[in-house]
């Protein structure tokens, strides 16, 4: 119940931030808000919720199947750490190197996965979108 309330508050905060006019907040503030919402969704295992922050064209070109979502339910995220980032405000591109701690719920085996997020500013929607999709927590397994 507490997790649901926390996720609901995060979604409401994101919606509120998205509803503000662009002049009321800077691009970088919005980038940080979207990255925070993304990292929260991943940390809490809300991969379906995280999909809403992925660029719509990418989602259409790379749809996530029910089987893939079930696979994400098999893991528990234990850590989500930013290891470096760069942002080109004028160019509308931001990169973040992330380290994710993952535990397989069935075997209790833990591993660390590195992941690079690429965020792009969409002038039409006045929003930052993730263009790299959900992290591959299995790295080709």
Automatic annotation (TrEMBL):
Domain of life: Bacteria
Signal peptide extent: 1-24
Keywords, sorted A to Z: Signal
UniProt protein name: DUF4440 domain-containing protein
Gene source species: Lysobacter arvi
